[in-house]
Design brief:
Layout lengths: L8 H12 L5 H8 L3 H13 L19 E9 L4 H12 L4 E6 L6 E7 L2 H12 L5 E8 L14
Antiparallel strand pairs: 1-3, 1-4, 2-3
Helix pairs in contact: 2-3
């Protein structure tokens, strides 16, 4: 298994450039990092095969698409048996409103990042999707007032 420390400067430069704009052409990427296009292509394929690059996506503007409410929802389970935990994770994974779900330490079990269009959608999500899950003990919702920073780019060293 290859880890980050085994990547050279060119590999890191490729990752940095692709984090900023994965839609650039191979020729443009090669020009930016001062390597030949075939060498860059081979390196990108290698980085994909090793799992450093997991995929390519278009990042959409949530608000322009009508998802005006971003929420963080804390969920505590009353039961922590493997079957119930697996069922909770399966259910959450199938909810398109849930952008992220994190199993966390502390006084809660899961932190969900949820996008909905409005107050009615939030109420429907809470009352029809989350609340019916029988082993949820507590739900606490925080509405995002403003996004100070949102990025998908990792700091590469």
């Amino acid at each position: 298994m290859t880890d980050y420390s085994q990547l050279d400067e060119s590999d890191r430069a490729i990752l940095q450039q692709l984090q900023q704009d994965s839609s650039i052409s191979n020729a443009e990427l090669a020009r930016r990092i001062n390597l030949s296009p075939p060498a860059v292509h081979a390196r990108v394929k290698r980085l994909e095969q090793l799992g450093f690059i997991q995929g390519y996506v278009a990042i959409l503007d949530r608000e322009k698409l009508g998802y005006d409410m971003l929420c963080f929802i804390q969920v505590s389970l009353s039961v922590h048996q493997p079957e119930q935990v697996a069922d909770f994770r399966r259910r959450i994974s199938q909810m398109p409103e849930v952008l992220e779900c994190h199993h966390v330490t502390g006084s809660i079990d899961y932190l969900l990042k949820v996008a909905v269009c409005n107050r009615e959608d939030l109420q429907r999500f809470l009352m029809e999707r989350l609340t019916p899950i029988p082993y949820i003990a507590r739900i606490q919702t925080s509405l995002v007032l403003s996004e100070i920073k949102a990025t998908t780019a990792l700091p590469l060293r």
